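Input sequence (548 aa), recorded before submission:
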Amino acid sequence: MKVKQLQVLMKSLANRVYLISVFTGSVFLTSGKFVNATNTPKFYFCIATLVVTAMFIVISRKQLYFGKITGKTMLWSISVICFIQACCGLSQFVDWLPSNHSTFAVTGSFDNPAGFAAVLVMGFPIGLYLLAKTKDVGRYVASAILVAIATAVFLSGSRTGVLAIIISPVIFFLFDTNIVSKFRQFRNYKLLLTVSIMICFVVSISVLYHQKKDSANGRLLIWEVSSEMIKEKPVFGHGFGMFQAKYMDYQAEYFKNNTNSKYVQLADNVKHSFNEFIKVAVEFGLVGLIVVLSLFLFVLWKIIKSENKNKGLVFSGLVSFLVLACFSYPLQYIAVWLLLVFYLLALLSSKEIRIKNTPGSIVARIIVVVVCTFLLFHFTKQIQSEMKWKTIAMNSLRGNTEGMLPEYEKLYSTSLKLNPYFLYNYGAELNFAGRFDKSIDILTECQQRFNDYDLQMLLADNYHRKGETEKAIEIYRHASFMIPCRFLPIYQLFEIYRKAGQKDMAVKYANEIVNKKVKIPSLTVNSIKAEAEEYLKENEITFGNTRS
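Predicted structure, token format:
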């Protein structure tokens, strides 16, 4: 009996070490050998590890043991990992470590504060659980971890993260029996609890909204434009990945029809909906949204009804995710997915599943091994291609664009052809090298998966240099509505009409440049405005607003 217990203990320990290692890689792993040095290594590491693990299990295991995932080892390990990540962010704030973003000081080992805050927020309830369940030194350590995480999230500037940090402990401690019992002395204690939570939520949102009002209004713009996308295809949506392929076209249409919109100065390139549920509705329609919401609400309802002692931990973790999902894009990060799985598994008890060597199980094992081998081969080739892409991109930036184009063509024949960011980079290099026809072909292909202001400007430049002026004018106009506060599309239109001798149109766009409100002052904008003013003076035109 003791031998069997020891075997079970060793298996449980091995499982936990494995899970901790995978989570550590999903949080900290970065590599300058990839174009996306922060997110890509984390993703490939986790996926490849899981594939190899699946192969190992089906080949060598006769039973699977699912240990209690909320054991002290796992909980403390996740909290320590989040604590170290928080310390990385704090070190960036005081300039001890470099940030991974040119604009934001605190990003941790992620590409921006959104990923950094999402992981810390998802780990915060675990620290609360340790604080509530441990004593003496453990309680002090848990307190230190919570303070570090909360401070790092506040300093990152992530308002969504701050909101989740405020709500998370409220939800967690409401599940504490002593606190709930105090509310039960009131006749309508359930209503009182609900109202208390809603007041906390509304007040927090109001405070955070006014902290960065322009940024918050920018998200309102995104949601309003997204609603137009949903209206056009409400049932089944536009398809997987189509948000980033179509959103900017809808934003251009929105500003074309609302030239005096209050959001004009807030518009920018948009890659995320800043709401995972809206993104689901855009890509999979109301059918997809109903399925996702139903599943999520069903899980929350099951947790509330559950007698599991971990339900406060799980409910707080899932509510934290819900807050992030409503105002950010947490599902872009593999570490968040792992933490979601952790919270769901925390409701399960220890279990051992025996795998019998029946003909059916043997066939299933063979199929799994074949599929995993294929996936591993595919990921290996993909990783090699991505690393090669980084090498040739850096060589091109050093001035060897012409020499790198054959290498880009070779990569184009690989699976990178499906990567819209590779296609954009390839199209930009072709434009720089003067291969305008090929650049148009590649960028048009990219546009089917990813489209934004910068891509439109490259396309317009290609057509302009080819001498297809009318097509260039059409695209420059489209780009000018995508982000109305940008000066360059209007300036290019002004230049085209001025050089063509079409004085009326040149005056129109010169006036628009002169009267356009400057969002971010720069030498380029000042130069463009000065040139437009000089043209109007030369033609003795009085400045006036001619925006149409």
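Checked by second reader. The CA atoms of residues 58 and 365 lie 6 Å apart.
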